[in-house]
Write a structure and sequence with these properties.
The protein is an alpha/beta fold and about 200 residues long. The protein has one domain: Nucleotidyltransferase, domain 5. The chain is about 35% helix and about 15% strand.
Length: about 200
């Protein structure tokens, strides 16, 4: 496994930012911002998608202990429907940065687009969660907090398999929508069922 870089610059206080849940049919999009100490190293830390749930949970505890500052922010499904998923992802990242108790000098954004955050420069890094430790840390926090939320929702709205699929468009989730209809947590601006295509 390739070792992730501890920083993008040598002298700026950097916050890695990433989100989880963009492609889901239900639930919020969740973003995290993480500032790690200079020269930080952690051999286990990697893009959250490459790790088991058990490893992610273990790393979340380590990240929260080791980080200089971290924050997690939610944008719910109703806001997603209002502003669209791309803008909701940016909004979630902005909210996470807002909550940091230390102001970073540079934001490292996973992906190729971002809406500038006033007063802080940013760098967009494609597949950044597999390149920089702070972005990988943010991806783990965003994913674990969102998974926790969806697992809790699954108990209130059984039948969609959310504790397993976390709101992604799996067969079980779509079968649930067909059988039970939608919940207050579904994103109505998304194509919830393939048959919707026949309506147009």
């Amino acid at each position: 496994m390739a070792t992730l870089a501890s920083s993008y610059t040598n002298d700026l206080l950097e916050a890695g930012c990433d989100e989880a849940g963009r492609g889901c049919l239900a639930g919020p999009v969740v973003a995290a911002a993480v500032i790690l100490p200079n020269e930080y190293s952690n051999n286990l830390l990697n893009d959250s998608k490459q790790l088991s749930a058990k490893k992610r949970d273990f790393l979340r505890t380590q990240i929260e202990k080791d980080a200089i500052a971290y924050a997690v922010a939610f944008v719910d499904n109703k806001e997603i429907d209002e502003v669209n998923i791309l803008n909701a992802s940016f909004l979630a990242m902005h909210r996470a940065v807002d909550q940091l108790n230390q102001k970073p000098e540079l934001l490292l954004i996973d992906g190729n687009r971002f809406k500038p955050y006033e007063g802080i420069n940013h760098e967009c890094i494609v597949k950044g969660d597999g390149k920089y430790l702070s972005i990988a840390a943010a991806s783990i926090l965003a994913k674990t907090y969102r998974d926790e939320f969806m697992t809790e929702l699954d108990a209130k709205h059984p039948g969609y398999g959310w504790s397993k699929n976390m709101g992604y468009p799996t067969k079980e989730h779509r079968n649930g929508i067909e059988k039970l209809g939608v919940t207050p947590y579904h994103r109505m601006s998304f194509q919830l069922l393939p048959t919707q295509m026949e309506l147009f």
